[in-house]
Amino acid sequence: MSGRLAGRVALITGGSRGIGAAVARAYVAEGAAVAVGYQPVPEMERLADALVDELVAGGGAAVAVPADLADPDQVDTLVATARDALGPIGIVVANAAASVPTPWREIPVEQWDLVWAVNVRATWLLARAAYDDLVDSGSGAIITVTSVMVETGAPGRIDYTASKAGVIGLTRALARELGPDGVRVNAVMPGAIRTEHEVAAEPHPARIAERILPLQALQRRGFAEDLAGAFVYLASDDSSFVTGQVINVDGGWVHY
Predict the structure, then answer these.
(1) Residue 18 belongs to a domain with what CATH number?
(2) Which of 42, 128, 139, 160 has its CA 20 to 30 A from that of 220?
(3) 3-state secondary structure (DSSP) of residue 229
(4) pLDDT tens sequence across 155-204
Protein backbone atom coordinates (compact mmCIF):
# COMPACT_ATOMS: atom_id res chain seq x y z
CA MET A 1 0.00 0.00 0.00
CA SER A 2 1.06 3.62 -0.58
CA GLY A 3 0.11 5.16 2.76
CA ARG A 4 -2.48 7.41 1.16
CA LEU A 5 -4.32 7.78 4.49
CA ALA A 6 -1.29 8.04 6.77
CA GLY A 7 -2.01 10.06 9.89
CA ARG A 8 -5.77 10.14 9.28
CA VAL A 9 -8.46 8.91 11.67
CA ALA A 10 -11.55 7.23 10.22
CA LEU A 11 -14.85 6.32 11.83
CA ILE A 12 -16.66 3.48 10.04
CA THR A 13 -20.17 2.51 11.09
CA GLY A 14 -21.34 -1.01 10.45
CA GLY A 15 -17.68 -1.90 10.62
CA SER A 16 -17.82 -5.31 12.25
CA ARG A 17 -18.34 -7.30 9.04
CA GLY A 18 -19.02 -7.11 5.31
CA ILE A 19 -18.26 -3.89 3.48
CA GLY A 20 -17.44 -2.00 6.65
CA ALA A 21 -14.82 -4.54 7.73
CA ALA A 22 -13.26 -4.57 4.25
CA VAL A 23 -13.00 -0.78 4.33
CA ALA A 24 -11.46 -0.87 7.81
CA ARG A 25 -8.77 -3.29 6.61
CA ALA A 26 -8.05 -1.18 3.54
CA TYR A 27 -7.85 2.04 5.54
CA VAL A 28 -5.46 0.58 8.11
CA ALA A 29 -3.33 -0.81 5.28
CA GLU A 30 -3.15 2.75 3.90
CA GLY A 31 -2.00 4.14 7.27
CA ALA A 32 -5.23 5.33 8.89
CA ALA A 33 -6.34 4.70 12.45
CA VAL A 34 -9.84 3.26 12.47
CA ALA A 35 -12.78 3.32 14.88
CA VAL A 36 -14.98 0.32 14.10
CA GLY A 37 -18.54 1.26 14.94
CA TYR A 38 -20.87 -1.66 15.55
CA GLN A 39 -24.41 -2.47 16.59
CA PRO A 40 -24.41 -3.21 20.34
CA VAL A 41 -25.46 -6.86 20.17
CA PRO A 42 -23.26 -9.82 21.18
CA GLU A 43 -22.53 -11.16 17.69
CA MET A 44 -21.53 -7.77 16.26
CA GLU A 45 -19.43 -7.08 19.36
CA ARG A 46 -17.60 -10.37 18.89
CA LEU A 47 -16.91 -9.63 15.23
CA ALA A 48 -15.82 -6.04 15.90
CA ASP A 49 -13.45 -7.10 18.67
CA ALA A 50 -11.96 -9.83 16.47
CA LEU A 51 -11.44 -7.36 13.61
CA VAL A 52 -9.75 -4.84 15.90
CA ASP A 53 -7.49 -7.57 17.31
CA GLU A 54 -6.55 -8.51 13.74
CA LEU A 55 -5.79 -4.92 12.75
CA VAL A 56 -3.76 -4.19 15.87
CA ALA A 57 -1.82 -7.47 15.56
CA GLY A 58 -0.87 -6.34 12.05
CA GLY A 59 0.57 -3.09 13.39
CA GLY A 60 -2.46 -0.86 12.89
CA ALA A 61 -4.38 1.39 15.26
CA ALA A 62 -8.02 0.49 15.78
CA VAL A 63 -10.75 0.48 18.41
CA ALA A 64 -14.25 -0.97 18.51
CA VAL A 65 -17.05 1.36 19.57
CA PRO A 66 -20.69 0.29 20.07
CA ALA A 67 -23.64 2.50 19.17
CA ASP A 68 -27.33 2.14 18.41
CA LEU A 69 -27.58 4.57 15.51
CA ALA A 70 -31.34 4.89 15.98
CA ASP A 71 -30.58 6.77 19.21
CA PRO A 72 -29.33 10.31 18.48
CA ASP A 73 -27.47 10.51 21.80
CA GLN A 74 -25.54 7.35 20.98
CA VAL A 75 -24.47 8.79 17.63
CA ASP A 76 -22.90 11.74 19.44
CA THR A 77 -21.28 9.41 21.96
CA LEU A 78 -19.89 7.23 19.16
CA VAL A 79 -18.09 10.19 17.61
CA ALA A 80 -16.84 11.46 20.97
CA THR A 81 -15.57 8.02 22.00
CA ALA A 82 -13.77 7.50 18.70
CA ARG A 83 -12.17 10.94 19.00
CA ASP A 84 -11.04 10.32 22.57
CA ALA A 85 -9.49 6.99 21.59
CA LEU A 86 -7.75 7.89 18.34
CA GLY A 87 -7.78 11.67 17.89
CA PRO A 88 -9.74 14.09 15.69
CA ILE A 89 -11.79 12.38 13.00
CA GLY A 90 -10.95 13.22 9.41
CA ILE A 91 -12.99 10.54 7.63
CA VAL A 92 -16.53 9.37 8.29
CA VAL A 93 -17.88 6.29 6.52
CA ALA A 94 -21.64 6.02 7.10
CA ASN A 95 -21.97 2.37 6.17
CA ALA A 96 -24.37 0.91 8.75
CA ALA A 97 -27.90 0.23 7.55
CA ALA A 98 -31.14 -1.24 8.80
CA SER A 99 -33.12 -3.50 6.50
CA VAL A 100 -36.01 -5.85 7.21
CA PRO A 101 -37.50 -7.30 3.98
CA THR A 102 -41.27 -6.95 4.29
CA PRO A 103 -44.18 -6.70 1.80
CA TRP A 104 -44.82 -3.00 1.40
CA ARG A 105 -48.37 -3.00 2.79
CA GLU A 106 -47.28 -4.92 5.87
CA ILE A 107 -44.43 -2.67 7.00
CA PRO A 108 -45.15 -1.36 10.50
CA VAL A 109 -44.70 2.38 10.91
CA GLU A 110 -42.15 1.63 13.62
CA GLN A 111 -40.06 -0.37 11.15
CA TRP A 112 -40.23 2.39 8.54
CA ASP A 113 -39.10 4.93 11.12
CA LEU A 114 -36.25 2.70 12.31
CA VAL A 115 -34.92 2.16 8.79
CA TRP A 116 -34.96 5.89 8.09
CA ALA A 117 -33.46 6.72 11.47
CA VAL A 118 -30.48 4.42 10.95
CA ASN A 119 -29.95 4.89 7.23
CA VAL A 120 -30.63 8.61 6.79
CA ARG A 121 -30.96 10.49 10.07
CA ALA A 122 -27.88 8.87 11.62
CA THR A 123 -25.81 9.87 8.59
CA TRP A 124 -26.81 13.50 9.12
CA LEU A 125 -26.10 13.21 12.85
CA LEU A 126 -22.67 11.69 12.22
CA ALA A 127 -21.78 14.58 9.92
CA ARG A 128 -23.01 17.08 12.50
CA ALA A 129 -21.13 15.47 15.38
CA ALA A 130 -17.86 15.15 13.46
CA TYR A 131 -18.15 18.52 11.69
CA ASP A 132 -15.52 20.46 13.65
CA ASP A 133 -12.96 17.66 13.32
CA LEU A 134 -13.64 17.27 9.61
CA VAL A 135 -13.14 21.00 8.99
CA ASP A 136 -10.05 21.26 11.16
CA SER A 137 -8.43 18.30 9.40
CA GLY A 138 -8.10 20.33 6.22
CA SER A 139 -9.06 17.32 4.11
CA GLY A 140 -12.25 16.01 5.70
CA ALA A 141 -14.26 13.40 3.84
CA ILE A 142 -17.66 11.85 4.42
CA ILE A 143 -18.55 8.73 2.47
CA THR A 144 -22.12 7.50 2.51
CA VAL A 145 -23.45 4.20 1.21
CA THR A 146 -26.51 3.99 -1.00
CA SER A 147 -27.75 0.98 -3.02
CA VAL A 148 -28.31 -0.12 -6.59
CA MET A 149 -31.92 -0.70 -5.51
CA VAL A 150 -32.43 3.05 -5.88
CA GLU A 151 -32.09 2.51 -9.62
CA THR A 152 -33.73 -0.89 -9.93
CA GLY A 153 -36.36 -1.04 -7.20
CA ALA A 154 -36.96 -4.28 -5.33
CA PRO A 155 -40.09 -5.96 -4.00
CA GLY A 156 -40.28 -6.19 -0.24
CA ARG A 157 -37.68 -3.45 0.27
CA ILE A 158 -39.61 -0.22 -0.20
CA ASP A 159 -38.56 1.35 3.11
CA TYR A 160 -34.90 0.46 2.57
CA THR A 161 -34.90 1.56 -1.08
CA ALA A 162 -36.57 4.88 -0.30
CA SER A 163 -34.10 5.52 2.51
CA LYS A 164 -31.16 4.82 0.21
CA ALA A 165 -32.55 7.33 -2.28
CA GLY A 166 -32.70 9.72 0.64
CA VAL A 167 -29.01 9.05 1.30
CA ILE A 168 -28.19 10.31 -2.20
CA GLY A 169 -30.13 13.50 -1.61
CA LEU A 170 -28.47 13.95 1.75
CA THR A 171 -25.05 13.36 0.22
CA ARG A 172 -25.53 16.03 -2.42
CA ALA A 173 -27.01 18.51 0.03
CA LEU A 174 -24.17 17.95 2.51
CA ALA A 175 -21.64 18.38 -0.29
CA ARG A 176 -23.10 21.84 -0.93
CA GLU A 177 -23.24 22.67 2.79
CA LEU A 178 -19.70 21.53 3.59
CA GLY A 179 -17.91 22.39 0.36
CA PRO A 180 -17.08 25.94 1.51
CA ASP A 181 -15.42 24.38 4.56
CA GLY A 182 -13.24 22.12 2.42
CA VAL A 183 -15.06 18.93 3.40
CA ARG A 184 -16.02 16.52 0.62
CA VAL A 185 -19.11 14.30 0.68
CA ASN A 186 -19.60 11.40 -1.74
CA ALA A 187 -21.55 8.16 -1.93
CA VAL A 188 -20.72 4.62 -2.97
CA MET A 189 -23.50 2.64 -4.66
CA PRO A 190 -22.87 -1.10 -4.24
CA GLY A 191 -24.56 -3.66 -6.43
CA ALA A 192 -25.24 -7.23 -5.32
CA ILE A 193 -22.38 -8.01 -2.94
CA ARG A 194 -21.79 -11.43 -1.41
CA THR A 195 -21.40 -10.50 2.28
CA GLU A 196 -22.22 -12.34 5.48
CA HIS A 197 -25.67 -10.75 5.40
CA GLU A 198 -26.41 -12.31 2.02
CA VAL A 199 -24.97 -15.66 3.07
CA ALA A 200 -27.32 -15.75 6.06
CA ALA A 201 -30.31 -15.04 3.82
CA GLU A 202 -29.24 -17.39 1.00
CA PRO A 203 -26.47 -19.88 1.79
CA HIS A 204 -26.47 -21.30 -1.75
CA PRO A 205 -24.49 -18.79 -3.86
CA ALA A 206 -25.43 -20.35 -7.20
CA ARG A 207 -29.09 -19.45 -6.72
CA ILE A 208 -28.36 -15.75 -6.41
CA ALA A 209 -25.69 -15.86 -9.10
CA GLU A 210 -28.20 -17.26 -11.59
CA ARG A 211 -30.40 -14.24 -10.97
CA ILE A 212 -27.73 -11.55 -10.67
CA LEU A 213 -25.10 -12.33 -13.28
CA PRO A 214 -27.38 -11.78 -16.31
CA LEU A 215 -27.95 -8.24 -15.02
CA GLN A 216 -24.26 -7.37 -14.78
CA ALA A 217 -21.65 -6.61 -17.44
CA LEU A 218 -19.00 -8.42 -15.39
CA GLN A 219 -19.83 -12.08 -15.07
CA ARG A 220 -18.78 -12.74 -11.50
CA ARG A 221 -20.16 -11.96 -8.07
CA GLY A 222 -19.02 -8.92 -6.16
CA PHE A 223 -17.43 -9.19 -2.73
CA ALA A 224 -16.82 -6.64 0.02
CA GLU A 225 -13.17 -6.32 -0.96
CA ASP A 226 -14.24 -5.17 -4.42
CA LEU A 227 -15.60 -1.98 -2.89
CA ALA A 228 -12.67 -1.09 -0.66
CA GLY A 229 -10.72 0.69 -3.39
CA ALA A 230 -13.55 3.13 -4.03
CA PHE A 231 -13.68 4.02 -0.34
CA VAL A 232 -9.91 4.54 -0.22
CA TYR A 233 -10.08 6.76 -3.29
CA LEU A 234 -12.90 8.89 -1.88
CA ALA A 235 -11.12 9.31 1.46
CA SER A 236 -7.73 10.18 -0.02
CA ASP A 237 -6.26 13.22 -1.73
CA ASP A 238 -6.63 11.36 -5.02
CA SER A 239 -10.25 12.61 -5.00
CA SER A 240 -9.51 16.09 -3.64
CA PHE A 241 -11.70 17.75 -6.32
CA VAL A 242 -14.54 15.22 -6.16
CA THR A 243 -17.65 15.91 -4.12
CA GLY A 244 -21.39 15.36 -4.34
CA GLN A 245 -20.89 12.27 -6.50
CA VAL A 246 -22.23 8.71 -6.52
CA ILE A 247 -19.75 6.02 -7.55
CA ASN A 248 -21.31 2.76 -8.69
CA VAL A 249 -19.45 -0.41 -7.78
CA ASP A 250 -21.92 -2.92 -9.18
CA GLY A 251 -20.20 -4.95 -11.89
CA GLY A 252 -21.85 -2.85 -14.58
CA TRP A 253 -25.45 -3.38 -13.49
CA VAL A 254 -26.80 0.15 -13.90
CA HIS A 255 -25.59 3.37 -15.50
CA TYR A 256 -25.79 6.33 -13.16
Answers:
(1) 3.40.50.720
(2) 160
(3) helix
(4) 999 999 999 999 999 999 999 999 999 999 999 999 888 877 777 777 78
Question: Residue length, the chain?
Answer: 256
Nearest-angstrom CA–CA distance, 164 and 144: 10
- Radius of gyration for the chain, computed over Cα atoms and rounded to the nearest angstrom: 17
The answer to whether the Cα torsion of 228, 231, 236, 239 is positive or negative is: positive
Residue 254 within a domain: no
Q: Reply yes or no on whether 27 is catalytic.
A: no
What is the average per-residue pLDDT within 93-98? 98
Q: Do the domain assignments include residue 127?
A: yes
Domain enclosing residue 137, as ranges: 9-195+225-246
In DSSP terms, 65 is beta-bridged to 37
Active-site position among 27, 38, 131, 160: 160
Number of domains in the chain: 1
Q: Is residue 112, in this structure, part of any structural domain at all? A: yes
For 49-108, strand residue ranges (E) read 62-66, 91-94
Indicate yes or no: pTM above 0.70.
yes
Q: Is the pLDDT of residue 256 over 90?
A: no
Residue 23 and residue 10: Cα distance in Å, rounded? Answer: 10
